[in-house]
């Protein structure tokens, strides 16, 4: 009987430790992409050689990106481009909210991780959420 109770407790603790919550993924909003695109056009250096920036961030229950970090940068390297990237990070933090992740059981907004890409191609800017 003691072995059964011990085994049951170990299984219960393991299940609780590794249980996954069901939640929807956060969704990028057009307000975010439009606002950021407009700001990028305003601050981007004329000789921008950066072609792509891949960001990851924690997104709060309010839909705000709290810690946008560059995971990968393609191109760039000048002082002006470095300043552009630093300024872009502060603009991302101040940009309009995303649609936050929702807990499937309660329907309440929850904190989650998100990844997105900003691409620069012939003066066009494309901002997409990564899967």
Q: What does this molecule look like?
A:
Keywords: Signal. This protein is α+β, with helices and mostly antiparallel strands and about 130 residues long. The protein has one domain (about 20-130). The protein contains 3 helices and 6 strands, in the order ααββαββββ. It has a 4-stranded antiparallel β-sheet, covered by helices on one side. It has a two-stranded antiparallel sheet with strand order 3-4. Strand 5 (about 110-120) and strand 6 form a beta hairpin. The longest helix has 17 residues, at about 1-20. The protein starts with a helix and ends with a strand.
The pLDDT mean sits at 88
What low-confidence regions span 5 or more consecutive residues with pLDDT below 50?
none
The proportion of strand residues reads 25-35%
Helix content: 25-40%
Profile the largest sheet: 4 strands, antiparallel
Structural class: alpha+beta
The figure for the number of domains is 1
Concise synopsis of the structure shown:
This protein is of the alpha+beta class. Helix content is 36%, strand content 26%.
Spell out the blueprint of helices and strands.
Layout: H1 2-18, H2 30-43, E1 52-59, E2 69-74, H3 79-94, E3 101-102, E4 109-110, E5 112-121, E6 124-129
Antiparallel strand pairs: 1-2, 1-5, 3-4, 5-6
Helix pairs in contact: 2-3
Signal peptide: 1-19
Organism: Mucilaginibacter pineti
Keywords: Signal
């Amino acid at each position: 009987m003691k072995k059964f109770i011990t085994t049951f407790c170990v299984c219960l603790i393991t299940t609780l430790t590794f249980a996954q919550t069901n939640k929807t993924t956060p969704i990028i909003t057009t307000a975010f992409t439009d606002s950021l695109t407009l700001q990028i056009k305003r601050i981007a250096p004329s000789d921008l050689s950066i072609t792509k920036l891949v960001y990851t961030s924690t997104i709060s229950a309010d839909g705000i990106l709290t810690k946008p970090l560059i995971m990968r940068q393609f191109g760039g390297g000048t002082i002006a481009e470095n300043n552009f990237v630093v300024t872009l990070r502060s603009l991302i933090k101040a940009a309009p909210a995303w649609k936050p992740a929702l807990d499937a059981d309660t329907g309440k907004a929850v904190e989650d991780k998100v990844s997105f890409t900003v691409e620069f191609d012939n003066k066009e800017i494309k901002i997409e959420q990564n899967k």
